[in-house]
Structure formats: structure tokens, C-alpha cells
Amino acid sequence: MKLKTAIIQMDIAYGHPEENYKRAEGWLQKAANEGCQLAVLPELWTTGYDLTRLDEIADREASQTIAFLSEQAKKHQMHLIGGSVANETANGVENTLLVINKQGELLKKYSKLHLFRLMEEEKFLKAGEGDGLFTLENAQMAAFICYDIRFPEWLRKHVLSGANVLFIPAEWPLARTDHWRTLLIARAIENQSYVVGCNRSGEDPKNKFAGHSMIIDPWGEIIAEAGEEEELLIGEIDLAKVPEIRERIPVFEDRRVEFYR
Ligand SMILES: NC(=O)CCC(=O)C(=O)O
Fold first, then answer.
1. Whether the model pTM is above 0.90
2. In angstroms, what is the span from residue 126 Cα to ligand 1's centroid?
3. Residue 50 CB less than 6 A away from ligand 1
């Protein structure tokens, strides 16, 4: 199965959800015009990191964003890894990723497991407690959010459950571009899986962001990589490559878990 995939490396209007819905609508139209079957949005794309105003701008139960993405998915017949949003729940505000299929159905909500202190997430957000697994087009996939990629054991747990396409929406600062690129490539090589990292571009009052979204194949080869600026990045995910690579180097057969359980 092959999936023509669009990464929407957009700039985000700080604290302005209505403006960001408009921007995302424009980018999704462009992805549809290019014949993409799946599109990925960045982390916290409706609000950016305007965390001190979450009481005004968070999306209650992510309902407005789910309605928006569902309509867009149906209109363009495109699966959406709908980035993440500030999701106001009874538990507090979570940083929640949404997966919507092309029929407009919500397949998955995943709330960021590891909160990132350098951007004060722990002061304003509640950490999630669920996994990132979902099935799309009969293939098992998983999604994570930004800082989560620094925890290889978390991604590996999903790969051992069968996921072999790993999506990572992010707001990763320019100051650590090398970490972003290196960690994404490493996660692809060690898990012999596709890695699709969707970062934002632009800046907010505290950070300039790296861009450099990437699609990396299970051998670790970069299929597509964006620059720092806004861009619609397109590449193909070919699931047949996964068993091919796992046969070439049978890492999963060679594990000796009795020594490192
Ligand atoms: N939004 C984030 O989780 C940023 C993570 C990050 O910058 C890092 O270095 O890790």
C-alpha cells in the first residue's frame, strides 16, 4: 500500500484559533490539489504555545477542531493526522492529537505523554495516559507529539504492538534543529519504520521554530525534507518497504529481551 502524504509545515498565528483554521483550510486545499491521500498538521496548531490564555482559547473536548477536520477530511477524501490542539477536558487542558479518516470519523485521540518543561507545559497542561496506536487503510500506525521522540522506549512499545508508520507533529525550536533531525532518523532506523515528522515554521514571543519536517523510510533514508520556511512537503509512504528492510537486517528476530526487559 502506498500513501501520498502531505506534511503541512505552516506558521501558526499565536493565540488565534480562527485565523489558524483559515490557514489550515488553505493548506489542506493545496494538499488535495496535489492528489495527497493523507495530510499531517503540526503540534498545537490552533493556538501555538499561548499557554497563559488557555482558559479563553483551548478547545473544549477538541470539539471545534474535530468538526473542522472531519469536514475537511470528507471534502477532500483525505486521511488527517490532525496535529494536536489544546484540548480542555474535565481533567484539565491536554495537548491532544487527533486522527480522522477520509470518511470524517475520529479514529484516535492521543494526549502528549511527556510534558516539556523548557516550554512550561507542566505548568499549564495535563499529561496524557493513553497510547498512540491506530489503524488506517488496514495498516497499524502510531502517533506521538514532539518531545515524546526523546523517549525511544515509548515508540518501541508501539512498534512491538505492530505499528510501522510513526507520526510526530511538533513545535520544535530552531535552537535544537540537530536534535530534531537526528532523533527522527534514529527512531526510523532503530524501529525499521516510517517516521513522518511535521514541525511548524515561524516564531512566537519565545522561540523561533526549526521547520525541517521530514519523511524518513525504514532504512533511515530521507524521502522528503523541508527547509525552515512554510512549505507543503510531499512524499510517498510505501508499506512494502517495511518487511523488505526487516528481512535485510532482522533486528526484531535478533532481540535478546531476557537481558534487557
Ligand atoms: N514542543 C516540544 O515538545 C518541544 C520539544 C523540544 O524542543 C525538545 O528539545 O525536546
1. yes
2. 16
3. no
Q: Which domain holds residue 155?
A: 2-253
The yes-or-no verdict on residue 261 having pLDDT over 90 is no
Instruction: Let me know if residue 261 belongs to a domain.
Output: no
Q: What is the pLDDT of residue 162?
A: 98
Give me the number of domains the chain comprises: 1
Enter the C-alpha cell of residue 138: 488496514
Number of residues written out for the chain = 261
What residues act catalytically?
Answer: 43, 112, 146
Instruction: Report the alpha-carbon angle 29-41-43, nearest 5.
Output: 150
Which CATH number does the domain housing residue 102 bear? 3.60.110.10
Confidence band, pLDDT 50/70/90 cuts, at residue 214: very high
Residue nearest to atom 7 of ligand 1 (CA): 172
Does the ipTM surpass 0.95? yes
d(CA 9, CA 229): 8
